[in-house]
Design brief:
91 residues; Ribosomal Protein L30, Chain: A; 3-stranded antiparallel β-sheet; 4 helices; 3 strands
Length: 91
């Protein structure tokens, strides 16, 4: 086995082990667009434009992935979104 093949094999295994998770935000009839946008900017480090686009997707599609990453990074962010009254879960 060549070094290149071994390296590609190692990368493939590593990619399988480090699986990203997602925070999915769900639509509700309670929170205003401004509250959702401000929450995403604050908690998920979105730009105002990113947060606004996510809020629109949530409104019209019912849900939107708002952050992707490792579970240990997403868990406190998702908890904060829930504390702010938003409906979210990690998948």
């Amino acid at each position: 086995m060549s070094t290149i093949e071994k390296t590609q094999e190692d990368v493939s295994v590593l990619e399988q082990v480090v699986k990203d998770h997602e925070i999915v935000l769900f639509n509700d009839d309670v929170n205003t667009f401004d509250h959702v946008i401000e929450s995403l900017v604050s908690v998920c480090d979105h730009t105002w434009e990113q947060a606004e686009q996510c809020a629109m997707l949530v409104h019209y599609k019912g849900k939107c992935t708002v952050k992707t990453g490792e579970y240990k990074d997403l868990e406190p962010r998702c908890s904060m979104l829930l504390t702010l009254g938003l409906s979210a879960e990690i998948v």
